[in-house]
Amino acid sequence: MSFLETLTARAPMIQMRLRDAVREIPASDVRDAMEYAVQGGKCLRGLMVIEGAALHGIAAADAVNAAAAIEAMHACSLVHDDLPAMDDDDLRRGRPTVHVKWDEATAILAGDALQTLAFELLARPDTCPDPQRRVTLIGELALAAGARGMVLGQAMDIAAERAENPLTLEEITALQQGKTGALIGWAGMAGPRLAGADPAPLGRYAAALGLAFQIADDILDVEGDAEKAGKRLRKDAGAGKATFVSLLGLEGARTRAAELVDEAEAALSPYGAQAEILREAARFVIAREM
User: Fold this and answer.
1) Nearest-CA neighbor of 107 among 85, 80, 86?
2) pTM of the entire structure?
């Protein structure tokens, strides 16, 4: 199957596992908001988990808990990122954001609950029979999602909006390696972690892909279609924020993204033809319209 065929086949599997986990929670507005927040989306991070596991002989059914976990954490980041105190967005995946559909308190609690659900999924014995591997996955997700990774990147982004001078290319690269790249990095290495294998090649792949993903996002913010993207665009320019496009120009940003895709593909060389889906995923990242 091609990448898009694989994504189309795997996304419902990941979303169903996540939906079922949410539905195990007692009924409340928070549970409803959690289920709403995990609907839709590409499940790219979850697919990376499943494909990385497949490269190490692990079936999709045995990697789906970890795939659902990273999608839960990603959904948490989106719910919180959309809040008025953060990016203040009213549209996500073509629908009202959680705080708009419910309220800010429910959105905060739903995001918190999705974060803890990610760790709950990883802690389950059916995620991996080896408890030490489960602990490693949990610990690394805590690092990727917390004040050394995603949270740090978001804090840097907020600080940049208040700074007198726009960020430099080096600073914005560091920011996005946390805000966007940290969870993608975890997704890349989760497959070999489940198998007890060396995560370094897929770690290099995910690092390059994560940065290419953010550059593509910056390009979409400038020239994308809001209806296809399912969210407001042109926000960064309106806020006067430095982006890869503002620093490199559109063509420079496209060139850098293409270079990163080449780096990502090169990192997959140890896996040969078996890694073709992940190679296509890297190409998809800079060609997507949403």
Assistant:
1) 80
2) 0.94
